[in-house]
Amino acid sequence: MNARRTLVFGGARSGKSAYAEKEALAALSSGAREIVYIATAGRSASAGDAEMSARIAHHRQRREALGGSWRTVEEPLALGEALRANSGPGKVVLVDCLTVWLSNLLFAEGYDFPELGPIDAPAAFTLQRVDFLRALQEAKGTVILVSNEVGMGIVPTGAVSRWFVDEAGRLNQSVAALCERVQWVAAGLPLSFKDTPC
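Request: output the structure for the sequence above.
Response:
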């Protein structure tokens, strides 16, 4: 099984996660031995947040309903390390989602960001981003990444929100450049932006 990296992105409630999960199952039926689901939001990321806990539970229930062999790894920060540890020939790694991971990195060090002016990203942000992109470039087997498109609406007023929109866009561009396939999902329907033969 050749290495194949896919970025699945779209807006909120577009159906991108459900589409990515079906793609992972299709790879499993094509000869992969295992699906590893790397969740960037997990127990540690959702403490005290009932809405995020409900979202996580919904994702888990949907995977259980789909069937297949899913092994979940919760990693809110060291995504490159988790990708290296879990990708390989005969494996499918599904990462959901990159923008939650970006948010985790932004707030991991407990900074009190200003409402106006420039935002200095935490040191962990730059280090983890570089490490993740390197791990993605070197990954073996099938890797499917889910991300949000957050830059198509009104430009936010707060400095940290604008920084997040900009960095999410830059991250999506960097990931798309490394992936053989890029799928946009809207209203549950995929549209292929890129499909390079392996």
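The chain has seven helices and seven strands.
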